[in-house]
Design goal:
The protein has 9 helices and no strands. The chain has 2 domains: 52 residues, Arc Repressor Mutant, subunit A (Orthogonal Bundle); 139 residues, Tetracycline Repressor, domain 2.
Length: 194
């Protein structure tokens, strides 16, 4: 139950998460209806409830999957897997994220403000991403690629703050500086931790 004939459980869940991300971005968390998500995915609400306890858990998983996909796509572009190059490429892209990326994160933040369980789940996911950056930096410090004079946890936290701040500025439609100017600033920040 809860799957479309011919689709694996994994494919069913992926289709649900894509539809959920779209609907949450379009309608907001409060405005999104489980029935809309099911319809967009070409499924029934039963399919959703066979995978998710409630709308909040669906939102958390959509964000988690969306973030994981973005991170994997970003990692694929990094030559040699260098943590500094990963931060550089991520930094270059921050002010130019797509409106869909921005909308989903903003909706999650607004919904989390009103729902402690959702706040904890989303906060945990953000902390996992921050820890991933911290571990990359610590590994680079051990290899001598990154200065060990800066605490990796603080640098990772700064990276998350900058990332989340970029989401807010995009949501407010604040125009970023031209890409060349932005890259100069990111290059200088990256150079300061190498």
């Amino acid at each position: 139950m809860g799957r479309i004939a011919g689709l694996s459980a994994e494919d069913t869940k992926k289709r649900l998460l894509e539809a959920a991300a779209d609907i949450f971005a379009e309608s907001g968390y409060e405005g999104a209806k489980v029935s809309q998500i099911a319809k967009r995915a070409g499924m029934t609400t039963g399919a959703i409830y066979s995978h998710y306890e409630n709308k909040g858990s669906l939102l958390c998983d959509a964000i988690r999957e969306h973030g994981k996909t973005a991170l994997l796509n970003l990692l694929a572009t990094v030559p040699g897997g260098s943590p500094l190059e990963l931060l550089r490429i991520a930094g270059y892209q921050l002010p130019f994220k797509s409106p869909e990326d921005v909308a989903l994160v903003i909706e999650a933040a607004v919904a989390a403000r009103r729902d402690d369980e959702l706040s904890h789940a989303i906060g945990s996911d953000v902390k996992l991403q921050e820890n991933f950056i911290k571990e990359l930096l610590e590994d680079a410090q051990q290899k001598g690629e990154v200065s060990s004079s800066l605490p990796a946890d603080a640098v990772a936290h700064l990276a998350m703050i900058i990332g989340l701040g970029s989401v807010i500025t995009r949501a407010l439609k604040i125009e970023p500086p031209d890409s060349k100017s932005w890259e100069i600033v990111i290059d200088r920040l990256i150079a300061s931790i190498s």
